[in-house]
Amino acid sequence: MTKIPGSNLEFVREEDFVEYYIFPKIPDNVEDEGALRKLMLQIRNEISAIVREKSLERSYLWHKDEFQLQVRLGSAEERLLNEETNPEQEAELGDLPPHFHGVTHYGDNISDEWFVVYLLTEITRARGDCIARVSDSDGEFLLIEAADALPDWASPETCEQRVYLVGGALQLLQNSAATSQDEPLTMATAVQRIRMNPTLYRCSRQIQSCIDARLKEYQIAQPHFSIHRQVLELPHSAAQLLKQKPRLLSSAVRAFCERDSLDVKALRTMRYFPPEATRVRTNVRFTRCLYAMLSHQQYLPEKRLGWHLTDPVNEPERYKEQLLGLKLASGLEILATQAKRIEGQKLEDLPAWRSYLRSLQSKGYFRDNIEGSAEYQALLNKAKEYFHGNQERFRTASRAGAEILDLLLHPAEAASEELRDEENNLQPSDSDEWLNISAEDLDSMLQDRYGPKKLYKPNGQMNAEEFTKQLAEFLDRQSNYEGIEHRGLEEPELDSDDDEPPPQAKSSTGLGAKVKKNPSMRKACQRNSVIQPEEPDSTHVRNFLDFVIPEDNWDSTSEMSDYADEDDMERNLNSLSGGGSVFPLDRQIQSYMEQMDRELAQTSVGKSFHGKKAPPKADEDDFDDIEDFEPININVNTLRNMMDSYQSQVGGAGPVSNLFSAMGVGMSAGEDMEHKDISESAV
């Protein structure tokens, strides 16, 4: 797999892992390695108690690996044994202070990854001296969750090893203004900076809210909503195992679902859980993920094995209990057989050990000692001991199989008594209707999780003015190869002296007019090296961009007036054609525009536009020759045209739906919109 800078045990990693570090504060007077290790073990026990409490309160069942911490003192030899040291990356990573490190594989259940995040927030909240960091194969996945609220400088390149949990809250380290954000930051440096000022790098409330919303399901101290209780009919020994070690359930389900030809061969004998054994009915707790995996596996045992199942038509519920029970017993059988298969295998024959040994040799772990020498053997024994202690992380064999074999040899009497008591007081199985998701339910779930923040309903109750304003703001944004900038992240407006017209230009209008400009074009020209402030021609370009449009005082019928924010254009034309204007305009142009408005209003095209009632004025007689003349309402007409285009797409991709997606809005499914419903009353 692809190596991840700074990650441990690269050669055993899969894509479904979450990696975490916890940095406790070590007193300065602890310098001896023995005393330091003793202190770290004491802190780990306290952290383990917090994890155990939170897990038991929620009856949490891990899908693959549990939350586990290993002590790291940061010595050179330990870094070599843990596959941390790489000569090409050592300078970049730096030496880490004493810390705890863990890797959890979550398989098909992403909920485990976020439960790890919840545990880390609770650990750092309970122990204010601890600083935690968590990442996965995607990198800083906490920032992915809060992508919509990140600051402008944040990106995958600038945020690597800069996200930490302190006091139960997220912190994001940013370089100073004098330092490039792309400059790498080691974890040791980041921890040191947080220690110096624990609140300086706290994230904004918007970012923290995104993380809190994702962790909300774990906040309540009660069984997690994903727990599914089901009655199963199991061989007595299998039911006894699950009462003693409930975590064996997830291993058994995964082993059954991932069975190969050797495992199928073991299922033909059922040596450890034979079908003729006494079967009991018992309550078993699944996660929804595990229950769905097991129930959707197509499997029927061979009849010669002796699995007698009831009629699925006459007793469907009893048949389901028996079928799920034999699937689970088959998974336990596979685990026991796998453990027995490698029980007598030597360490030197394991592929994982050979790969690990080659890695140590390439990194200089044996310090050029001759193979077979006393020093070499001492280092080799230490590596073997370390490998055995970390065998579960190295994924060489399932510890669950060895546990099953041991429990079969030494059954617990307490588990048998619990089974007898439970058989007379069985709780009913939970409904599994959640497995059946309709297309509408799926659309609703996707809409809630990934849908647009603003949702319009095409039923005529839309605010046309709000819609066109949002569209205009979107079109005014800038874009680059990374996409369209979000509101609030744009470059600051240019604040130069020539942004405002000279005083004489203001006074020359004689109207105290408001100045309207095109800031986007101004910024584009400012960035364009062709237009330099020193060049004489730039003055004419700026004058053109700073074109003054004084405010108007009447409702124009021309569509052009609505593009000027519907601010009435007659006074504009009068002022521009007047003697005092800096931009004199021929009166003939004004007459042309009036004539065009009259002609357009009497055509079918003009009548197709939705108008708005203009307030009557005593001195207004320009359109007396047109009966019931109404100015065009640009807001409503824009909305009508967009809805027509959206409906013509019939739910497929098209220009309007793509535009809505880029704007961050959407259109909900609803009754067909009639044009008569969209009127100025909706504005």
UniProtKB/TrEMBL annotation:
Residues 491-501 have a biased composition (Acidic residues). InterPro entries: Ecd (IPR010770). The lineage of its organism: Eukaryota, Metazoa, Ecdysozoa, Arthropoda, Hexapoda. The gene is Dyak\GE21715. Residues 491-528 are annotated as: Disordered. GO terms for cellular component: cytoplasm; nucleus. GO terms for biological process: chitin-based embryonic cuticle biosynthetic process; germ-band shortening; Golgi organization; head involution; instar larval development; lymph gland development; Malpighian tubule morphogenesis; molting cycle, chitin-based cuticle. GO terms for molecular function: snRNP binding. This is Protein ecdysoneless.
